[in-house]
Amino acid sequence: MRYKNWIGGKWVEAKSGKYFSSTNPADPADVLGEFPRSDRHDVETAVKAADRAFAEWSRVPAPKRGELLFEVAKLLKERKEELSQLMTREMGKVLKEARGDVQEGVDMTYYIAAEGRRLHGYVTPSELPHKTCYAVRRPIGRIAVITPWNFPLAIPTWKIMPALVAGNTVVWKPASDTPRLAYELAKIFDEVGLPDGVLNLVIGDGNSVGIPLAQHPKINMINFTGSTDIGREIYKYGAGKLNKVHLEMGGKNPIIVMDDADLELALDGILWSAFGTSGQRCTACSRLIIHRPVYKPLLNLLAERTKKLKLGNGLDPKTDVGPVVNPIQLKRIHEYVELGMKEGADLLIGGKVAKKGELAKGSFYEPTIFADVSPDMRIFQEEIFGPVLAATPAKDYDEAIRLANDTTYGLSSSIFTRDIYQAQRAIEDLETGITYVNAGTIGAEVHLPFGGIKDTGNGGREAGQTALDECCEWKTVYIDYSGRLQKAQGID
User: In terms of Cα–Cα distance, which of 290, 96, 92, 91 is closest to 178?
Assistant: First the structure.
């Protein structure tokens, strides 16, 4: 089946008339459809549609905008299993994780829909008599949303739902690896009767769609999740237009395990954080920092547990680790593994492209653990975005914190310890936007801020109340009912 863009409330073909296929990374013979190869001409049409729709949509009362999102959430919930199955087929994550991805989209949509009845401003006393002062939120305008493939439903809802409830219009470019999930979400908006042009879906690659969209003079804000290198380029395009730009980028997230930790609990957290979604999460644990007294025992236990993980198609309920998203990513991961061996790290387990039996058809990489990784190695410093874990010993708490912070990224972090003093110190000392105590580095609740520091982002946060801060402007209002001209305070 051939799918189309959704622009101005209509399903339309790309101007180029060209298409590409979306296939299952576990089995490329499983084709999910053909999708438009859009370009700057389609971007132009979509931005014009968003521009036309903005004035009317921004005047719809926010509670009414929220009511429409409640209808979207209802359909997402009803179609959870169908969407989860499609997600596993399109990008590979195991079915139980795909269900979690969809559920996060449901939760975010319900949460933000309710904000339509709040969208809190604030009132403050004036310094002058008979004068009222307050501040209200106003929409920014036309927002470009550019989303990744690893959370193809959750992340779009993080960005689109707050933008819409705040009264903005959106042009959305999803990842080229997951166009089918984008189509299904847009289809739900179409079914609930979202006014024409409020949300526009343009499918295509970064050069043909993403860059023209970010550069477009009518776009007032860019909201991007992806790699740090591309994020830097996006930032430049926004800066040239004085756009607001929200960037959510890479991570090199550490788990610290101290000698007093519950090792079985730590093992569960490490395996889930390092190899869930085949390590393709910005919050994945890719660095393991272990207190020396438990370094070798923990690594031995970890290697044994990792050997038991089953690679396979994510639709198989016995599968623990699915494929990586495509052959290009598979090649990139293996190049990093080869680099780690050249750098002198000890390959404990894995390190190969999986080619046995049914695995040979897809993009499967063995869960991989390196031991004795030093901070000067690239596999310690650079984001690999695959099932590769680098383990490093630390002589004490202070060295563990130094190692954890020795990176340009700062998204998520974790410490396993029974010592309340060390746990509280770690919360203060770890240079990340998120810290977990006695849990892995991944997972987010939709009512709390999500984001990082350093090269992970540019200061903004998604989810929670901060999601609204990102897609709103503040307007301050003064009402003088004194009946005379009151000059500034201190002037008679």
Answer: 91
